[in-house]
Amino acid sequence: MTVPEKATTSTEPLLKVSGLVKHFPIKKGLLQRQSGAVQAVDGLDFDVRPGETLGVVGESGCGKSTMGRLITRLLEPTSGKIEFEGKDITHLNTAQMRPMRRDVQMIFQDPYSSLNPRHTVGAIVSAPFRLQGVTPEGGIKAEVQRLLALVGLNPEHYNRYPHEFSGGQRQRIGIARALALKPKLVVADEPVSALDVSIQAQVVNLLDDLQDELGLTYVIIAHDLSVIRHVSDRIAVMYLGKIVELADRKDLYERPMHPYTKALLSAVPVPDPRRRAKRERILLKGDVPSPISPPSGCRFHTRCWKATEVCKRQEPPLVSLATGHQVACHHPESVSDVRLPPRGPDQAPDQKPGAEAAQKVTKKTDS
Question: Boundaries of each ABC transporter domain copy (predicted)?
Answer without folding.
Answer: 15-265
